Amino acid sequence: MAMQMEEARGFVFQALREGDCNQFPTLLSSVARINARVHNISLDPRQIHLQGNEGQLLTEPEKSLIQEIVWSLIIQGILIPGLNDSNQGWPFLRLTEYGRRCIEEDRILPHDPDGFLRDFHREVPNADSTVVEYLTEALQCYIHGLHRSAAVMLDGASEQSVLLLIDSYGNSIADPNAKQAFETTVEKTQSIFRKFEQFERRFSGLQQKMPRALTDNVDSQLRGVFDLIRSSRNDAGHPAISGSVSRDAVYSHLRLFTPYCKRINDLITWFTNNQT
After folding, report:
1. Co-location of 156 and 63 in the same domain
2. CA distances from 24 to 16, 44, 234 (A)
3. 186-205 pLDDT tens trace
4. Rounded CA gap, 187 and 185, in Å?
5. Which end of the chain has the lower number of beta carbons within 10 A, N or C?
């Protein structure tokens, strides 16, 4: 079966991690080796190591697909054409400093949106569809260099997650009067920031009754990531505010979002199954 974009992008990142990809032909050979390894395909060792034999290892559509991925990574600032003063252009390649930092983390990257979402669904299998839609768009904005748009979309995913958390807590309140009072207060509160504050005031008194796995560092994780993402959204969405949204900031926030959302969903599950 021919490689598809999702699989090919993952193979390219794996090849870059394994090194020795300073030319496009050698990158093709590395991707072919990884493909063979993953799919248990036997290859003649002479095919693998002789430069110029890549056509025997990959189909023309697969090579074109990998070339498309490489140019996408060049646009994103992960790769740059050229190796040194003597080899300044294509087909030579090298990682940028930013690209090197990304590759060294050895984790699924936002630059691999399909892999990133696959990892997200593995960690948060029951993720809300609206959260996934906003996260997906944030990733697409990010890989196309639209960092302000990515910040706004990621904040949409964060806000939806927090609203679901607040709603699940409200539904868990056993006392009808307390439940009504909380829901009325939240409904009358306009901003997500103030709604979250209403939840936090009540949540702090519940933590002793909850499993430690849910409450360890929960305040810093929820409030910390919520504020980081919200602050970037404010910088991105309000021209009157003096500030900008950097690529590194959005990258960092995307990396924080999966464990943040997992913690929120674990709390939602607990509130769904327990009265408070």
Report:
1. no
2. 11, 21, 41
3. 999 989 999 999 999 999 88
4. 5
5. N
